[in-house]
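Input.
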Amino acid sequence: MKADPTTQAKLLQLAEVDAEIGRLAHQRRTLAEHKQFEEAEQRVRDARDAAVRAETRAGDLDRDIARIERDVDGVRARTERDRTMLAGSGIGAKQATELQHELDTLARRQGVLEDEQLGVMEEREAVGAELEHARAELAAAEEHIAEVGTRRDRAEGDIDVSRAGRDRARAELVTVLPDELLADYERIRAKGGVAAGALRESRCSACRLELDRTFIAQVRGTAADEVVHCEECGAILVRGK
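Output.
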């Protein structure tokens, strides 16, 4: 394959632009903000889980408190009814004894319920404080992830601006390259290496290896418009004038 030396020289510009594009892509992938955002996401998840656990426990305790209050109200209502009946006329001794026994039982039951109610209310107070703390932690975590997300987006945006400029430069360069030469370059580049390098004395700038003197002599004896490749890395070897 043949190509004018001046045209071949443009491959070095293209290789430089591609290297910059690669560096920008790597920089975007490895931004510190990505790791920070992942950590912030985990913090939000942990804080949300803690809040949900506290809310669930608070809800369970609220239902327990409501149940106990209903039971206490029922005992009080039953106690008031029995006292009214006991104070009424026409109550026989046996019925009076039974009513008094039931009142004693109701009093003990009310005492047990009120003790249970006090314990649950104390626990609910503690869980309430835990819930308040969990919600504060969640709010702080959400604020933090928003800040990290803003920094990440700004850093990505700055890189994207630079990348857009390099993409435009690349688009301009490829339009002036012959299809066959460009195809050869892209084939080499697709393998993951540097696709074009300058021959500097006896060294290839693409792989930076010292080349065999016999190979160098062959290259020097090849026509200037002949496209040659590095014997080490396969890159298009661009010779100086």
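The first strand starts at residue 196 and ends at 200.
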